[in-house]
Design brief:
alpha+beta, 144 residues
């Protein structure tokens, strides 16, 4: 399945918040508990559409990708795919493209993932290595 990316815009606020809810609520709730008011406020205070791209499949917005340059590394700040489009290879294809770009720039890629999130298995399949952890997160690196 071929995907495209477009820059996120202010008008994507509702879509991006709902994407967070459907993709992360279960894991946030299991880790800290879900407080809707806190989550909405936190999302609003940290909503920077200029740092995100919307994933499109067949003219439909189906996800979000956020990758940041941090010094001499890339940081995968977020990849979210609507549940109806998960397990179809889209997220893996996106990540493979991110890693390909990182290799061409000789930049390692970092990420953090909640310990309760099974996405860690996908990252491990793509050669991310566990480098640290705390009570709630695994910190992983893809070394070029």
């Amino acid at each position: 399945m071929i995907y495209t990316l477009r820059p996120a815009e202010e008008s994507d606020y509702d879509f991006m918040y709902q994407l967070k809810v459907v993709c992360l609520k279960e894991y946030i709730d299991a880790t800290w508990g879900w407080d809707e008011e806190f989550q909405k406020t936190h999302f609003t205070e940290h909503f920077y559409p200029n740092k995100a791209q919307i994933v499109i499949v067949k003219s439909q917005d189906i996800g979000q990708l956020s990758v940041e340059v941090r010094g001499k590394s890339l940081f995968l700040a977020g990849i979210y795919i609507l549940p109806a489009f998960q397990r179809r290879g889209i997220g893996k294809a996106i990540l493979q493209d991110v890693l390909s770009g990182a290799r061409s720039q000789q930049m390692p890629v970092w990420l953090q993932v909640l310990k309760v999130n099974p996405a860690r298995k996908l990252y491990e399949c793509l050669a991310f290595q566990l480098v640290a952890e705390n009570e709630t997160h695994y910190f992983m690196r893809y070394q070029v």
